[in-house]
Amino acid sequence: MEGTPKQPSNLSLLLQSLLDEAQQLPDAGKVADYIPALAAVAPDQIGLAVATIDGQVHSAGDADTAFSIQSVSKIFGLVQAMNRKGDSLWQRVHMEPSGQPFNSIVQLEWEHGIPRNPFINAGALVVADMLVSHYSASKAAALTFIRRLALTEQIWVDNAVYHSEKEHGNRNAALAYLMKSFGNIEAEVPDVLDHYFYQCSVEMSCKQLALSLLFLANRGIHPVNEQSICSRRDAHRVNAILSTSGMYDQSGEFAFTVGLPAKSGVGGGIAAIVPNYGVIAAWSPKLNNFGNSCRGMHMITQLAGQLGLSVY
Ligand code: DON
Q1: What is the pLDDT of residue 9?
Q2: Which sites bind substrate (predicted)?
Q3: pLDDT tens by residue, 275-311
Q4: From the CB of 121, is ligand 1 less than 6 Å away?
């Protein structure tokens, strides 16, 4: 990190001013519309939260409003699977950037059904397969894990999104069946897809999301209750892959301009990990061409720049 992060005298005021600034940006981006349930989200909502490793949460705007976390959920699934499978996980999913859109299928055939990383859909489906194969009730286990991390029982799945994802899931089904043909999916494909769509449909607020990922800023230990969530080595590994592959095809630019491990989702959420400091969670539904929240990107970029949070 570029020295110690600057401590603003009032972090909540800074968050509010960055949020106000993001709201004034020229109207850009488009709400995800591949399923009706996401297309119906009010587009001008905006929230920002920072949880620091002393357990405090600062926020601005709609930081208590629950939104569809979508691909941010791939972090939770990965950590669960790393805890269950150990190093054998990396024989079935690699840790390289893909250079392809998140739902691309072409690379998967060239590379014999082994996905490039756990944050593209194919990789997240392999992770989901591991969880479905391990747990008798994998969906309940996923929700329990997320609630444990966020320190609240008040986290639910949006059923409209969940059912809509299932109805429009042909591309993910194609990825899963292709991988099964290579022997890289063990469970039945409909069960793997069901788990994946359920996990994508979890709703969380910026405040909950920031708290839930604090363990990644604190070497695998949840700083609020001192619970060990994963090993120090695995926290490092998750942050490393987030840095190279967490922001879709904009991961290089995000590392260049922001310099933090981060994950976005097509619901408009972005979570950025600041090692030894905390977690930033931003949400606003309108997405840029890469699938990243326009206003969320702006707020995180400004905050990281002003406080000197880059890890590089
Ligand atoms: O897999 C899908 O189609 C959606 N649930 C998209 C999730 C997402 O945010 C994009 N993934 N990398």
Answers
A1: 76
A2: 71, 121, 165, 172, 196, 248, 266
A3: 999 999 999 999 999 999 999 999 999 999 999 999 9
A4: yes
Q: Which of 79, 127, 161, 266 is catalytic?
A: 266
- What's the ipTM? 0.93
Interval between CA 7 and ligand 1 midpoint (Å): 35
Whether 88 sits among the annotated catalytic residues: the reply is no
Indicate the CATH number of 11-307 among 3.40.50.300, 3.90.780.10, 3.40.50.1860, 3.40.710.10: 3.40.710.10
Give residue 5's pLDDT.
81
**How far is it, in rounded angstroms, from Cα 272 to Cα 280?**
5
Rounded distance between C-alpha atoms, residue 209 and residue 202, angstroms: 11
Sign of CA dihedral 298, 63, 207, 141: negative
The CA 266 to ligand 1 mean position distance, Å, reads 6
Instruction: Report yes or no on whether pTM surpasses 0.95.
Output: yes
For the chain, what are the domain ranges? Answer: 11-307
The yes-or-no answer on residue 98 being catalytic is no
Q: Which residues contact 80 (CB under 8 A, 6 or more apart)?
A: 131, 141, 142, 145
**Mean pLDDT for all residues in the chain:** 96
